[in-house]
Specification:
elongated, mainly alpha, 82% helix
């Protein structure tokens, strides 16, 4: 059968599966079986054809949907944290990497600009904050700012502010992602300037060991929240082979998953900033341990685990095809 005839014969069914997927598990399994049969045929007769790649992508989507809705997985919260969210991260790792690169570039810019002109530092952090920090450094307590205020109230205030910023970064992605990038750049420059202010006083290592007690989770969450906003904007600007509105809906769905997944991260980061960071003088072993565990968690849950899970899904899909 010629490729054009093969496509014409099955096109309507493929499009129906793509745009109107069945919610019934049995129907979904039937659709998947048919797609696997189509894929086996296409790989045999059109191994390098576009239709083969298209069917493979559609079969992968159906399989992941079936996998995520297995009957034995009764606890939806467990499913979300164990499968849904990591697979969403895996799907958008490219966007997350872009968000990280933007952060690092403007972090470096903020650090360099601050080292060249103190007025730039004051314009970003405010003169009052810079003077207070210098005074604390002279007193031998450079990070004294984290020891002020009620710990519980600080925790709640910081958590609410961070969630607000992340939500704005995500929702503003609807404007082609431009405001999202601006928010990310703004935060990146601020962290770079903040780092340079301590590094210039010989406290560069102390900055990472103290500020990143909470900063590891907080900055990671900001980067991922920006990525969620970019996913939203990208889905509208570049819908691919599907309708723009369907691509936008999928981008919004994935972005919401990413933001929801960040809520506990922001809560924990705020808890660390309000209650743990202030202990850096008295319990430096504890704060260093928190930094180390936070770094391990971020690398594992946002990078390694999604990759391993995504690859496992592909292997299982190939086994199903065989």
């Amino acid at each position: 059968m010629r490729e054009a005839l093969f496509i014409k014969k099955n096109k309507d069914r493929w499009l129906k599966n793509q745009h109107q997927p069945s919610g019934d598990p049995d129907e979904m399994a039937k659709d998947f079986t048919q797609l696997v049969e189509d894929l086996a045929y296409a790989k045999t007769f059109y191994p390098s054809g576009k239709v083969t790649r298209f069917i493979n992508n559609e079969a992968s989507k159906v399989y992941l949907t079936i996998y995520k809705n297995r009957k034995e997985e009764s606890n939806r919260l467990v499913t979300f944290w164990k499968y849904d969210l990591p697979l969403t991260f895996y799907k958008h790792h490219g966007v997350m990497l872009f968000s990280l690169i933007v952060f690092l570039l403007f972090f470096a810019f903020g650090f360099f600009a601050s080292s060249q002109d103190e007025n730039f530092t004051r314009s970003v952090l405010s003169s009052g904050y810079v003077d207070m920090t210098k005074e604390n450094i002279e007193k031998g307590n450079p990070f004294g700012v984290y020891e002020s205020g009620n710990p519980i109230l600080s925790w709640l205030r910081i958590m609410i502010n961070n969630i607000k910023v992340s939500t704005i970064a995500f929702t503003s992605g609807i404007f082609c992602g431009v405001p999202t990038i601006y928010i990310l750049v703004q935060n990146s420059v601020m962290v770079g300037v903040f780092d340079e202010m301590f590094a210039s006083q010989g406290l560069g290592l102390d900055f990472w060991l103290v500020v990143f007690v909470h900063g590891t989770l907080e900055i990671t969450a900001i980067i991922v929240a920006a990525a969620a906003g970019l996913v939203l904007g990208k889905s509208f600007l570049f819908p691919g082979t599907i309708k723009r509105i369907d691509a936008f809906k999928q981008g919004a769905k994935d972005g919401v998953k990413m933001i929801i997944g960040l809520m506990p991260v922001f809560a924990l980061a705020a808890f660390f900033e309000g209650l743990i960071t202030r202990l850096y003088n008295d319990l430096s072993v504890l704060t260093t341990l928190v930094v180390s565990l936070s770094v391990i968690f971020v690398i594992w849950y946002f990078v390694i685990y999604p990759i391993r899970l995504g690859r496992r899904m592909k292997v299982q899909l190939n086994e199903e095809e065989v």
